[in-house]
Amino acid sequence: MSNMEAALQSLFGFHQFREGQGQTIQQLLAGHSSLAVFPTGSGKSLCYQFAATQLPNLTLVISPLIALMHDQLDFLTSKGIAAASLDSSQTKEESQAVMSGVQNGDIKILMISVERFKNERFRRFIKQVPISMLVVDEAHCISEWGHNFRPDYLKLPSYQQELAIPLVLLLTATATRRVQKDMAQKFSIQPEHIVQTGFYRSNLDIDLIQTQSHEKFSTLQDVLAQSQGASIVYVTQQKTAEDIASRLQANGYAATAYHAGLANDVRSAIQADFMQGKTQIIVATIAFGMGIDKSDIRLVVHYDLPKSIENYSQEIGRAGRDNQPSRCVLLANLEGIHTLENFVYGDTPEPQNIDTLLGHIIEESTSQGAINKQWETQLYGLSNHTNIRSLPLKTLLVQLELLDVLTPKYSYYADVRVKWEVDQLAFSNHLPIEWQNAYQGILKGIQYKKIWGTPNFEQIHNQTGLTRGDVLQILEFAADANALILESKGLTEVYDVNESAFHRQTLVHQLHHYVDEKQTSEIHRIATMIRFFELGRCLNNNLARYFGDQNAPEHCGHCSVCRGQPLVFPAESMSKASTPHEFENIDVFVREFTQQLHLKLPNTQITPVLIARFLTGLTQPVFTKMKARQLKGFGVYEEHAYQTVLDKVTSLSCDF
């Protein structure tokens, strides 16, 4: 037995490494940053968990979901490995205990979300901590060509440099060759340090069942009746989840709906019941699944079309992690394809919205006539001002960073307030000698309304020379000692604006071209998925090949194609076919919408695109402000092709 295998057995109780694990760990311990592409449920996490025990300093893990962190922390704690997370579910005392444990070296693994880096206090804290390795879980989020792209992930390479972290491990289950290359380049990972294992799962039966719209629910019941174990039924929309779950309950099934519209504690309780076997069937949007480490899921049904091949692969990958036979069923028709496509169209900013954003940056950064041009913004307000949804807005800001137009300086909470729990003058005795004068200066610069006080950072700086960071460091010290309660909200991002790179018209064109390309790419992703489902060759083989695995058997023998039942989508299900009377009231809906918008938000430019988004029910910031959902036409054509509705709006003779 090798030293590594002996350590594996003593630490984790496992007799041998699974495919790819040993190679990845050896590369890391030899000092080579690595990318591990293993299918869902095949032990990616062990790569960092084992390596972390052999490295001298902290391993910092970026994870996209609290549920994912908690599952992994439970596992590590059960093995006696000191690990913790900093997340929004914790009390102040819990966070403080974690930070103390990291600082004094008791904690070997710290898990955080990427957004944690926006927290001033966390960045000040983590800069003081020596870090051996940065781990990025669900690392395809880094790639603009990945299916769950998150703009904040693009900043991770610069955080790695800023914190001088020598080693990086990227983990993902779903990355095409293009995405792998993109991810590796961002962190200077050499091609020979990309470890990809076999993608093929011999225990998963893939069954694509042609289903007419009116037959879907009865077909679902037939499929559920054939399954004995835990099941997940995936749908696209929250209202469908509620509807299907209640219909199943009425027919005697132990089914529960799960979606992002439910409160956090409700979602946690539903998940716990499912994990413990109290609930057999979860009817869920894609909000459910990541971080669900339940090994005995016997059935995954796609009641509606998935978003992409990547999403499909990730979702069916939750079945049969115990390697027992499990079934993956798609109730196949194209009924929901326009809903999927419309989500994409609803996210794409219009050119005038991008121009509004750029105008706002210029206006705000030059208003003080400063030479060193800085721009401060809060995302929620900026989204409302520009009418750009928050995710595409974050993407645009990151693109402006990559174009060297904006340089992020720092972020802070605009509203900081304190409430003393002890005598503030007496507390000075508990401070280091060198902070005494600064502390007295801070006390003079806090303005009170009843019991809560607000530090006037500018006044304190003018009188004492203390920076905002200096003031917060001392107040945080007092908060940690329970001398005061420190509250902060209103996250504000501060950027330097590079005037020489700021060519407004060119940037509008560049950014619009970028978002347009993203839109085309996402629509293409949906079309690729439809073609995949209609293939006449083994589905398991094709799925493996899509992710770069050439070694899957040519004929698996356990998919509908191998059983001689290739799928052809029924033509009727392509969409609600337009009838001559379908759009006869469209001008009434448009008139009501434009009148209401003129009345409530007279400065908003009305375009055919904005009207088409209203008619197809695609949420925009201005719709929230004008209460568009209360109008008769909101979402009236949500099941129609966005392009058809847009063409119809464009052809109307009325003046917008």
Describe the protein.
This protein is an alpha/beta fold and about 650 residues long. It folds into 4 domains: about 5-195, Rossmann fold; about 205-340 and about 520-565, 3-Layer(aba) Sandwich (Rossmann fold), CATH 3.40.50; about 350-500, no CATH class; about 585-650, no CATH class. The chain is about 40% helix and about 15% strand. The strands form 4 sheets. Strands 3-4-2-5-6-1-7 form a 7-stranded parallel β-sheet, sandwiched between helices. It has a 6-stranded parallel β-sheet with strand order 8-13-12-9-11-10, sandwiched between helices. Strands 14-18-15 form a 3-stranded antiparallel β-sheet. A hairpin with a 2-residue loop joins strand 16 (about 445-450) and strand 17 (about 450-455). Helix 23 (about 610-615) crosses helix 25 (about 640-650).
- In one word, what is the shape? globular
- Mean pLDDT across the residues is 89
Oligomer: single chain
Gap from first CA to last CA? 76 Å
Helix content: 40-55%
> For this structure, what is the CATH homologous superfamily of the largest domain?
P-loop containing nucleotide triphosphate hydrolases
Output the strand order for the largest sheet.
3-4-2-5-6-1-7
Tally the helices: what do you get?
25
Give the uncertain stretches in residue-range form: none
The number of distinct β-strands equals 18
- Integer count of domains: 4
CATH architecture of the largest domain: 3-Layer(aba) Sandwich
Q: In the CATH hierarchy, what is the class of the largest domain? A: Alpha Beta
In angstroms, what is the radius of gyration?
27 Å
Q: Main β-sheet: number of strands, strand sense, barrel status? A: 7 strands, parallel
Strand content: 15-25%
Structural class: alpha/beta
> Which fold name fills CATH's third level, the topology of the largest domain?
Rossmann fold
